[in-house]
Amino acid sequence: MPHLVLLVEDDDQIAAPLIRTLEREDYVVERVAAGLPAVDRVQTGGVDLVLLDLGLPDVDGLEVCRRIRANGYVGGVLILTARGGELDRVVGLDVGADDYLAKPFGLAELLARTRALLRRATPATPATDAAPAAAAPAPAAPAAAPPADGLTVDTEARRVWIGTAELVLTAKEFDVLALLHSSAGAVFTRERVMDDVWDENWFGSTKTLDTTIGRLRQKLEDSAAPVRIVTVRGVGFRLESDTTDA
């Protein structure tokens, strides 16, 4: 089934060639020209990737990204913007974007970033704002009993549980955690994580990795996960059991 890409761009002269390029690659493309309609469209479900301009006429694109992540969207978000400064890139990643492409950019690079994100995108789920006739069932627990450390990473379903509570992660956050969990206690170099998670199509700053690690650490801490991500200075990261006394 073709991937659905939501293009959030108010400039017709920019949007038109992007739509043509994406449709030639057999993506289904929907376009909205403002931020609030984009939030509403993502919430209805079915969106695999959001291409998001920051300079929108109603609300800033960073606020759009913040809202869709807060609403539970776990698909890819690629920011497209004329703001090329490092601070803007970091802020965009802090609010949940997966990648950042400064204008002007080449269409070939856009397609490469799009493919990389879609390969890792978690399937989008429909919104659940409307109350169902009957109580909705709780999220399914992992098929096998959780391990002693209480962390379950299901790479096939791309889902994570802390005990029996599901932890919602973005695509990149899941990939980083799954990689570290694949050999818990081992040190993964920064280069290895960048190669495995962002692959050869990534040309941006490695601050992207630090931002993703920071968000992931916060989510693990907020969920009282019995594991933590440790930085090995000058080398990389490892996942280890958190034995800190309560």
Automatic annotation (TrEMBL):
It comes from the Bacteria. Transmembrane segments: none annotated. GO terms for molecular function: phosphorelay response regulator activity; transcription cis-regulatory region binding. The keyword Acyltransferase does not apply. The keyword Phosphoprotein applies. InterPro entries: CheY-like_superfamily (IPR011006), OmpR/PhoB-type_DNA-bd (IPR001867), Sig_transdc_resp-reg_C-effctor (IPR016032), Sig_transdc_resp-reg_receiver (IPR001789), WalR-like (IPR039420), WH-like_DNA-bd_sf (IPR036388). Coiled coil: none annotated. Residues 128-148 have a biased composition (Low complexity). Residues 143-241 form the OmpR/PhoB-type domain. Residues 4-118 form the Response regulatory domain. The modification 4-aspartylphosphate is found at D53. Keywords: DNA-binding, Phosphoprotein, Two-component regulatory system. One of its GO terms (biological process) is regulation of DNA-templated transcription. This is DNA-binding response regulator. It comes from Aeromicrobium endophyticum.
